[in-house]
Design a protein that fits this description.
homodimer, alpha/beta, 434 Repressor (Amino-terminal Domain), Rossmann fold, 3 domains, six-stranded parallel sheet, 12 helices, 12 strands, DNA-binding, Peripla_BP_I (chains A, B)
DNA sequence: TTGTACGCGTTATCAC
DNA sequence: GTGATAACGCGTACAA
């Protein structure tokens, strides 16, 4: 491999000059610069980033961990992350943690080994390795959280207003004349579940219907949605609307209803969450809450770069806009007036 | 940050010994080892991987490029890649190229800058940077291709038998009594399109029906599938079966049929390709070709490691098993006998 | 504007 | 079994 030394020799300048041509070209005379560049080209020189990193203590990499990269929600977020990182000159080290603590720790360790300049973790558990770093460096620690927000973590985060969104969904369901509504939650320990549940309950209370709000737990997957729906639909007094905390669970609910010959939206209304690509292609197209997935990803990168470049410290919480997308999976409930908004 | 030097000093040994405790503990006396380890623990020492890489010329990273990480097919492959890499002690640098030549080159350049030990590219275009490396190092170049296979590239690759799979699909459609079959292809320059088209045509020829085989082009996306289907379904003599070269296009086709009030599978049979997760949840569940996505990902990593560890050179082509998954989107065609396999 | 010289933190090769 | 010490390739303060 050709080094800066080879370039310098071939161009008849010192290593310093050759190096300068590549890092601060303006400091070097037009003519020498041209000569050096010509040699760089001819020899096919490429800077050894490892050596450069050792010198500068910057790697130009960030690690990003996700519970499941093949989940359509996360893969969109990751895409936003990759794009923003790439634009800023950073490379992305991808970690699929499968919600496994050990894997999470392993990726967090990369920070200690200086394999990356910062880390974005998508998930709600703060690895102890990161907690220690946070402890030591406080708000200047290059750690950012995405999608879920737990203020007590003390790290910056990008997310939507989950409670608000859930509340809107409930409001719209009540407006459509539904009274017996069921929730299909995510895992109980997820802040996502917590926030959305709070929002939904608040709406139910506002309408004096908290007593008729029921819930089943899932894990955001299609199968868990199907299972939960099967339970709910075989109740003595089944709900007329099911609000799932993920589109995948909503799709599972649709499948369960189909199997049970319950037609949607005539006999059962279904609402999802996220607005993944498939939401609009299932039958009936799914009413859901659109999360700006790519933007969430991009924003986490921005927050991290703010810390990395010393622009901004303190944990900042970025709330991005969501939007209720009305499609055809919601119909009028028993108390709906035909004139009500479809 | 604490360095090996600090550890050595605190433990009262030389840097060499301290370092040895971490890389070849068996060479160090029990007592000194324990002492050093205690200090490592107490000081919270973590090896600086950058310095280590500079010395060893190995980074422990591989770069993986995909056209679109949010595509359900690729995200599964990537998951397999991540898993296998992780197990082997490698980290994954993710590159989303969006089929953009410049981006592809940019990620390929990482090899020259020694940001990674090897590269896996999912896609069919060999970046010129890689071509140069291949030119120089021949079969020992740490470059592997996945999903698509073009022998002339001269790189190892993991994939299924695309032509064979397409042929099977056609055979099964003919057996079900279909004669007017339409293909929805991928981009014309893709080897995937080429191979599957060859397989489909071969089957048509075998049945003397090549004259009745028609085709439309798509780009593997849902929308392109819908567009293609709209064209096909408004033909004077529309096909009774549409074989799409991706599940997403098949889902688009299902949507087009629904809009046109053409019921599937009664009036139109649809077949997809890949068996992405959603394939079984759309209505009707999609008959498709299952690709072992995660295994393809894992295999590309194995192939790369073979090269990296000098176990195997020469371009090897790994053909993984696929399987035709029969679900409900295919029904009997005009020439089908009721007794035929459903 | 250019060159000299040092150090980044490891690992590996020698001696002892 | 342990210790000196020389690379690895680069960036940059400082001197010229």
């Amino acid at each position: 491999m050709t080094t800066i030394r080879d370039v310098a020799t071939a161009a008849g300048v010192s290593r310093a000059t050759a190096a300068r041509v590549l890092s601060s070209p303006e400091l070097v005379a037009e003519k020498t610069r041209a000569r050096v560049l010509e040699v760089v080209e001819r020899l096919g020189y490429s800077r050894n980033s490892v050596a450069a990193s050792l010198r500068t203590t910057r790697t130009g990499r960030i690690v990003v961990t996700v519970p499941d990269i093949s989940n359509p929600f996360f893969s969109r977020v990751i895409r936003g992350v990759e794009e923003a990182a790439q634009e800023a000159g950073y490379a992305v080290l991808l970690g699929d943690t499968r919600n496994d603590r050990d894997r999470e720790e392993q990726y967090a360790e990369m920070l200690n080994r200086r394999e990356a300049d910062g880390i974005i973790f998508l998930g709600h558990r703060l690895p102890t390795t990161l907690a220690r770093i946070l402890d030591r460096d406080g708000s200047r620690a290059p750690i950012v959280n995405g999608c879920e927000f737990t203020p007590s973590l003390g790290v910056s985060s990008a997310h939507i207003d989950n409670a608000g969104a859930a509340r809107e969904v409930m409001e719209s369901l009540y407006t459509m004349g539904h009274r017996d509504i069921a929730l299909v939650l995510g895992p109980p320990d997820s802040p996502l579940t917590r926030d959305r549940l709070i929002g939904a309950q608040r709406a139910a209370e506002d309408h004096g219907l908290i007593g008729r709000l029921i819930a089943e737990s899932g894990d955001f997957s299609v199968e868990s949605g199907r299972r939960a729906a099967n339970v709910l639909l075989s109740l003595d007094r089944p709900p007329t609307a099911i609000f799932c905390f993920s589109d995948e669970m909503a799709i599972g609910t649709l499948a369960a209803a189909r199997s049970a010959q319950i037609s949607c939206p005539e006999a059962l209304s279904v609402v999802g969450f996220d607005d993944i690509q498939m939401a609009r292609y299932v039958d009936p197209p799914l009413t859901t809450v659109r999360q700006p997935m790519a933007d969430i990803g991009r924003k986490t990168v921005e927050l991290l770069l703010d810390i990395l470049h010393g622009r901004q410290a303190g944990p900042v919480s970025a709330t991005l806009p969501h939007r209720l997308i009305i499609r055809q999976s919601v119909g009028l409930g028993p108390f709906g007036r035909p004139g009500a908004p479809a």
